[in-house]
Design a protein that fits this description.
mainly beta, nine-stranded mixed sheet, four-stranded antiparallel sheet, 6 helices
């Protein structure tokens, strides 16, 4: 694994990293940029493979709008299961056709090229090691990265029939069993509700807001301040007197992340904010060539958890959420 050092502040997540020899007025250089986090919990695995762009004569913002400057004309991506020797080729697809359109921004939105393989074909098994191999051409070095497949964490609290009790002056404790190969965990809470238009009762929409709690967690428990739950809902749901809401349930996810993801987040967090060292900022990558990350994750989700009656009353009439018209 390598750390690439780049001058100044990292502006875009992952995609603007470069090595310490990079000169913005140098001749064009091919720099692969790869992002892939694969999980046994997914039905399909996707990897984004692009290239960095440098041209002394054209603005980087202008080049970013040209698809030919982002993608390789010919490319082969393969997963290699190092336990079995099996090689699985990834298929080039347009993310928009897969339900993943590229967000508006600096980069060209169309096409949104990704490389995919189904879960059935990849057959990811926790504990096994997988290598990504990317061939760009005979003239360019093979790009490789490896990761161990992370096991699934098991949520011990809450259980499926538990009611979540968020007390404004207390904490709710989430507990889970460790996952094999996991370097860290994060906890995400999804609040599901229906939204009704008061002027048109037939206009009903299902809504969900997600709350990532606690950041990078290296243990197997998390205490959630009850008052923060109501602050989150109050800040995430639009105040609109024409709408009324009905709480439908909470989905709670614990995700386990691989070593590469942990290292990436650790390096990023250590070099941001007012207490950072300043100067050159290290950018983590585990690619043999270029910049990016290839890692593994896994997850366990408790679906359709109910709120304790006291907490539901606080959601309806509490100071942070009463203006949201929950009923």
């Amino acid at each position: 694994m390598r750390k690439i050092w780049l001058p100044g502040i990292t502006v875009l997540f992952l995609f603007l990293a470069c090595d310490n020899e990079l000169n913005l007025t140098a001749p064009w250089k091919d720099i692969p940029v790869i992002y892939g986090v694969i999980s046994p919990a997914d039905t399909t695995h996707y990897v984004r493979i692009e290239k960095a762009f440098l041209d002394p004569a054209i603005s980087a913002l202008e080049i970013a709008r040209i698809p030919d400057s982002l993608y390789y004309d010919e490319l082969e991506a393969v997963f290699v299961n190092l336990a079995t020797g099996q090689r699985i080729a990834l298929l080039e697809v347009d993310g928009a056709d897969e339900g993943y359109p590229r967000q508006d921004g600096v980069f060209a939105e169309s096409p949104n090229i990704l490389y995919k393989v189904t879960a059935a074909d990849a057959n990811l098994i926790p504990g096994q090691r997988v290598r990504l191999e990317v061939t760009r051409s005979d003239q360019l070095p093979l790009v490789t990265a490896e990761t161990n497949i992370v096991g699934r964490p098991t949520i011990n609290r809450p259980q499926a029939d538990d009611n979540l009790r968020f007390q404004t002056n207390g904490f709710y404790r989430v507990l889970w069993a460790a996952a094999s190969g996991a370097a860290f965990y994060d906890v995400i809470l999804y609040v599901n509700y229906n939204e009704y238009n008061i002027t048109d009762p037939s206009d009903v929409k299902s809504k969900v807001v997600g709350w990532k709690i606690g950041g990078v967690i290296t243990g197997t428990e998390l205490e959630i301040p009850g008052i923060e739950f109501y602050k989150f809902v109050g800040a995430s749901v639009e105040v609109n007197s024409d709408l009324r809401r009905v709480f439908k349930g909470i989905d709670l996810q614990v995700r386990a992340g691989g070593t590469e993801l942990y290292e990436f987040q650790r390096v990023q967090l250590a070099n941001t904010g007012i207490t950072s060292a300043g100067g050159d900022i290290p950018q983590y990558t585990n690619l043999s060539e270029g910049v990016g990350i290839f890692s593994s994750s896994n997850r366990h989700i408790r679906l359709d958890l109910e709120l304790h009656e006291e907490s539901l009353d606080s959601l309806i009439s509490g100071s942070f959420t009463k203006q949201l018209n929950f009923q």
